Amino acid sequence: MATRHDTAVPPTKEGGTAPGRAPADVPPSEAAKRRDRLSRRWQRDVRWSPYAFVSPFFLLFVAFGLFPLIYTGWASLHTVELTAPTDMDWVGLRNYTRIFDDEFFWNAAQNTLTIGIISTVPQLVMALGLAHILNYKLRGSTFYRVVMLAPYATSIAAASLVFVLLFGRDYGMINWGLGMVGFDHVDWQLDKWPSQFAVSTIVIWRWTGYNALIYLAAMQAIPQDLYESAALDGASRWRQFIHVTLPSLRPTILFTVVVSTIGASQLFGEPLLFDENKGASGGAEHQFQTLGLYLYEQGWINQHLGRASAIAWTMFLILIVIGVINYVISRRLRASS
Amino acid sequence: MTTTLTKPTAPEEAPPKRRAKALRAGGQLHAGPIAYVILALFTIGSLFPLVWTAIAASRDNNRLAQTPPPFWFGGNLLDKLELAWTDANLGEAFFNTTLVAGISAITIVFLSTIAGFAFAKLRFKGRGALMLIVIGTMMVPPQLSIIPLYMMVAELGWTDQLQAVILPSLVSAFGVFFMRQYLIQALPDEIIEAARVDGASSWRVIWHIVFPAARPAMAVLGMLMFVQTWNDFLWPFLVLTQTGSPTVQVAVAGLGRGYTPDQALIMAGALLGTLPLLLVFALFGKQIVGGIMQGAVKG
């Protein structure tokens, strides 16, 4: 890297190979000079190489993460058309007022929230239960763990497409099963709550096993003697789960909640491909249009990149608020325990 | 460990058998039949949609528009797979995706290992602050940056060119974090110090000490990143077109269009797009599971 200038380097003490410098009045031999040079290079290396090692990540992050994120904020204050993305006209906050006046923005925000809850809560609760079971001594435990991860290996596209068929109104397997036990057929596309439930099912299916593994890892890190002393106090297995397992898992649970919340706020591929027409409206009545889809619709279907930027920036601000709330809650929890 | 504890501590307590059992709770207890039933249900739930993808791919539109839905394979599987392969341009899509996911995974693993090593084992000013930034970036979803990235791609004329997908995918804070966590415990400080005393440069330390020590974690991270890039949808969907140079996901997603889409064909495409990854998981599932769990503990 260009930053490796030796002038800034003060002599370091830990130079293992550095030989004692020759006294000033004796002219140093060639070999001593060479060693001296080597040792200086060595010191420079020790001092600057850590920065060289971490800099590629930060350069990439600035180029493809930070700069675009900030530029999104800048673009959100302009009118930018998809067909001419470099022509930007300053409009101030008008993009924001436009989307806040749009009922479909609020609809999408609401759908994102409800789909987020329907997909995250059951997913994490099931993952917790599954991890608890996987934590027993099991025959073929590796088999179960790998099987639970198979949905994670399946792409959003493949998973969404098969669930469209399984949730088909007339010939889908799920309605057939409901019919067998005497229920009416459900319209998983057109009705609001069933469609949101169906989209959430795709998310739940793909991520439950993954989260279970994360919980399992945390459970295995809980010291065994906590359970032993709880058992000595006569705690039942259920009480052990409540009073030993859950408190020890608190940071991990918080972590998965944060990650799932972020994932839920970005939901895009599942609702796009679940729509029979593969459109960006999230169903004929926008019944399962998420913010991610709304952003795509505004930017790439209606071709208003400026407005899409305003949506992206709004989503970013929402995430920051969620992050702050999370931070406060986790501090409260830590303070109380 | 547990057995040595049970005997001396509670000898006089009534039913000794029960006591011993309770003491072994949490991780050591054998699963009962109910646990196996639940696991069986989850196994079916996890695998059924995948198996049914293959079943549906082996049928045709007529059979899929009947009740009850098919539960077993029909005779069309090979035909439909072949049709999906040519229809969705899957040959090229596989090549593209392998290239994208391969380059991306190898680069991420390399960059994450050296950065993770620096964060785990080297002392430098600003280390703590920089690590906090890395963790902070994990919380910012990349989707929020797509609009300027799209502008960049349009400006550079990179639409339908693979570097448009590869470059943004190289940012992986998770990778840095993952390698750091691994190297903290897998690489003893003494070895690095010994190499330093022998006058080894930082690059020599990386090549001859860090890479060999990090190999298992590098393999797992490589597989995770390969899976992630292979399955990536939104960004490739925006900058690659189905007729240009699609990735597998873009090609498969494009199969479902038209007024009467051939459902079996769509399922065949979905199956083909998933098969390589399922194969990787079948072969290296144990290592991947281990890697995910290892990365999780200190998360």
From TrEMBL, chain A:
Q: What is this protein called?
A: ABC transporter permease
Taxonomic source organism = Streptomyces fructofermentans
Keywords attached to this entry: Cell membrane, Membrane, Transmembrane, Transmembrane helix, Transport
Membrane topology, from the record: Multi-pass membrane protein
State the organism's lineage. Answer: Bacteria, Bacillati, Actinomycetota, Actinomycetes, Kitasatosporales
Regions that span the bilayer: 48-71, 113-134, 146-168, 197-218, 249-268, 310-329
| Subcellular location, principal | membrane
GO CC annotation terms, alphabetical: plasma membrane
Concerning PANTHER family, the annotation shows:
ABC TRANSPORTER PERMEASE PROTEIN, INNER MEMBRANE ABC TRANSPORTER PERMEASE PROTEIN YCJO
UniProtKB/TrEMBL annotation, chain B:
- Keywords in alphabetical order: Cell membrane, Membrane, Transmembrane, Transmembrane helix, Transport
Give the stretches traversing the membrane: 34-55, 99-120, 132-153, 165-184, 205-227, 264-284
How the protein sits in the membrane?
A: Multi-pass membrane protein
Q: Which residues form the ABC transmembrane type-1 domain?
A: 94-284
Q: Where in the cell is it found?
A: Cell membrane
Annotated region Disordered: the residues are 1-22
Q: Which PROSITE patterns match?
A: ABC_TM1
| Cellular-component GO terms for this entry | plasma membrane
The cross-references to InterPro entries, in alphabetical order and at most eight, read:
MetI-like, MetI-like_sf
Q: Which GO terms describe its biological process?
A: transmembrane transport
> Could you tell me which Pfam families the record lists for this protein?
BPD_transp_1
Main localization, broad class: membrane
Could you say which protein family the record assigns here? Answer: Belongs to the binding-protein-dependent transport system permease family.
Q: What is this protein called?
A: Sugar ABC transporter permease
